[in-house]
Write a structure and sequence with these properties.
Largest sheet: none
Keywords: Cell membrane, Membrane, Transmembrane, Transmembrane helix
Number of helices: 9
InterPro entries: LeuE-type
Mean pLDDT: 76
Helix content: over 70%
Number of strands: 0
Shape: globular
Number of domains: 1
Order of helices and strands: HHHHHHHHH
Radius of gyration: 18 Å
Membrane topology: Multi-pass membrane protein
GO molecular function: amino acid transmembrane transporter activity
Low-confidence stretches: 98-102
Strand content: under 5%
Organism: Acinetobacter kyonggiensis
Structural class: mainly alpha
Length: about 210
């Protein structure tokens, strides 16, 4: 029980550090509103679940985390982050949001799938998730029973979903959304810069391996 509490606390602390998922949620909120951002949050949570399932599958069938999988994810993740950076820089040059209400309509089915897939890709192609989750799973893989592993996975996925939805709710308050809308151009530049920074970090990780 003590080990589970430590893991739960460590996981929550890790959520406090902004990463690609946070900036994807922020830019989606600015461009498409709360509903779209919530679907991105669901996609991110599903991505976390997929990462955990891959880790457990590797441990069950191979007995270890395949390094080649992580290497491929790094390269693909770096390309995806550069793509997101390019989108942010494009938005910064072509639009400045001054009204939020018009972009907060309920998404269509195709838009919903698009937002879910964006969150899913952001989470699955983030090597930080694989490194973090694999280290936690390896720590308890032998000591935990099946139901404890299931509980840990449910905890991690649920906390990710609830935390990100809470962020959307907090950022959607009128005082914040008006400020974010007025500063949207600079926020796009900052988000694009962060995506580029994250992608360079991934490439540098490959150099030091």
């Amino acid at each position: 029980m003590e080990l589970f509490v430590i893991i739960a606390f460590t996981h929550f602390i890790a959520l406090l550090s902004p990463g690609p998922d946070f900036f994807l949620i922020l830019t989606t909120l600015l461009r498409h509103g709360r509903s779209a951002a919530r679907f991105v949050c669901v996609g991110i949570a599903l991505g976390n679940a997929c990462v955990l399932m891959v880790i457990y599958a590797c441990l069950f069938f191979l007995g270890k985390i395949d390094e080649n999988i992580l290497l491929y994810v790094r390269y693909i993740g770096a390309v995806y982050l550069i793509y997101l950076a390019a989108l942010c820089l494009y938005y910064a040059k072509t639009e400045v949001i001054t009204t939020h209400g018009k972009t907060d309509a309920v998404p269509t089915l195709s838009s919903t799938v698009s937002y879910l897939s964006q969150g899913l890709r952001s989470s699955v192609l983030n090597p930080k998730n694989i490194l973090f989750y694999s280290s936690l799973v390896l720590l308890v893989y032998v000591d935990f029973r099946v139901f404890q592993h299931i509980l840990m996975v449910l905890w991690m996925v649920t906390v990710v979903l609830l935390w990100n939805i809470l962020l959307v709710k907090l950022l959607s308050y009128k005082v914040w959304i008006e400020w974010l809308s007025l500063k949207s151009r600079w926020l796009y530049y900052i988000s694009g810069g962060c995506f580029i920074f994250f992608s360079l970090m991934l490439l540098m990780m490959n150099e030091f391996d």
